[in-house]
Amino acid sequence: MNTLKNIVYVMLCSLLFAGCDDVEFLNLKRDNPLDEKNNANMKDGVALKFDSYNVYSDNNDDGIINKGETIKLNICIKNNGTSTAESVKVNFSTTSQYISNLTPTTAINYGDIAAGSVKWYQYESYYVIQFSVSNSTPANTKIPISLSITDGNGNSFNDSFDVPVSATGANVIYNSFNVYSDNNSDGIINKGESVRLNVSLKNTGTSMAKAVKATFSTTSSYVSGFTPTSQVNYGDITAYGVKWADYQGNNGTYEGYAYYYTVKFTVSSSTPTNTQIPISISIVDESNNTWSASFSVTVE
Predict the structure, then answer these.
(1) Three-state DSSP class for 166?
(2) Architecture of the domain delimited by 172-299
């Protein structure tokens, strides 16, 4: 008989507490983050928190945050509560030494957020915050963003999230050269000639390389008058793209109205046939990403 009573008692308790989420006075605090019903910070039936973000814009348009970029983020807020959060406002801030010009510094108005719903910022510009990432930021740095959230009833909530700074997806390498001019105009480099080369670079990466510049040099004792020693501007190089330096693109070296080339030099008249002239390339983009490359030209 006692066993039967115990069974009935357990069944009644199970039925009673099965609907506790919908009963205000039995709405006990929960601390299981996996069920997304954590209401430990619920106030007046409202529990506001960060939900997710997306990269609205960045310098090379790959949706990845890299050093040296100006970033615009859209940020989603979630109401884990049982009541609508009215007139929600959020202030964003960071303590990262690698971030500058975080704006706005004033509260962002998200409006009302229904119970159990998420809301993206959807006014004017469609992004919430903007900031610049230092070009000295190490890859894999996590940038902390803090949120101070209030609603129209004076309830306040604090939350935070991290945005990772990734290594650039661009990878700029030497691609090819051609002999723009030589003394006898046969396109072959011979001893004693003054040679002008045009040099192309290739981006083998998955992201655009912005405002690429390259510096060329050689250590060959058979070469004199190697110019320019300053940076040559290649501009933007798209992912998997190839770019030649030329005057028309505001790159390369220009003399008068006829010459469009990357580098020029004079080959010594004492240069042995089949000598390899090494040329080194130091490459940098606007975010201070750097690459090194090299190639050789043969004296025939």
Answers:
(1) coil
(2) Sandwich (2.60)
